[in-house]
């Protein structure tokens, strides 16, 4: 596995690349409120940390080559628009941005484009783009969704335990990777009370309706869940837990990238 930064190549380097064996990664972060204790760039910082650890762990030349595009720092975070510091693109802007990047990747002669998405608000849009980009530019397209892969199983879809934004898991990761950027704990008093707070007032007693896990999904913005922007609770977060989780992420991402590398459609 060799990871190289797209921007460090020269234009003539592309003639040496094998399009069947080269993956192009587009990391997607976000710049959005992460409660009173985590920095705005949490999603961006975490995807870059995973990539950095991948390089450190597996920097051995092999027949798998990965080119990493510069991360998108601003994506579809409009659910957090009412909190200061959040910067967001509308769906239309992000669709056009990602499509234009994909067109340029295809024009450079490459074949496999992998979205490394670390912000939950982008998932539906990227899933739709997988087929559009395949149809428009002939690229093989893949969506590696960090929150879906790592947060969902960690955080079962029981409404009392839903804790997917700036809560225990993300706070632990940040304490491991960027401790200086986390406001000092304890984190008591931060977070949403999903049993008695706004979320319960809106959704208790509904069988089908739920903003994330319901048969009928309901459109939501963050203040529908939480007053301080945290969905869930960061209490008990720790750097040791975060360190273990980051290691799991790096190991699994490497396996996933190897699978993507050997995937092809048979006609
Ligand atoms: Zn986040």
Q: What can you tell me about this protein's structure?
A:
This protein is α/β, with parallel strands linked by helices and 267 residues long. The chain contains 7 helices and 7 strands. Helix 5 packs across helix 7. The radius of gyration is 19 Å and the shape is globular. It binds zinc ion. The site of zinc ion has 5 residues, from helix 1.
Quick summary:
This protein has helices at residues 42-57, 91-107, 123-137, 146-154, 168-177, 198-203, 239-262; strands at 2-5, 22-28, 65-68, 112-117, 140-145, 209-210, 216-217. The strands form two sheets. A five-stranded parallel beta sheet has the order 1-3-2-4-5, with helices on both faces. Strands 6-7 form a two-stranded parallel sheet. By secondary structure, it is of the alpha/beta class.
> What is the gyration radius calculated from CA atoms?
19 Å
Question: Mind describing the biggest β-sheet?
Answer: 5 strands, parallel
Name the ligand types: zinc ion
If strands are numbered along the chain, what order do they take across the biggest sheet? 1-3-2-4-5
The helix/strand order is EEHEHEHEHHHEEH
Helix tally? 7
Q: Would you report the number of β strands?
A: 7
Q: What is the helix fraction of residues, given as a range?
A: 25-40%
Mean of residue pLDDT values? 92
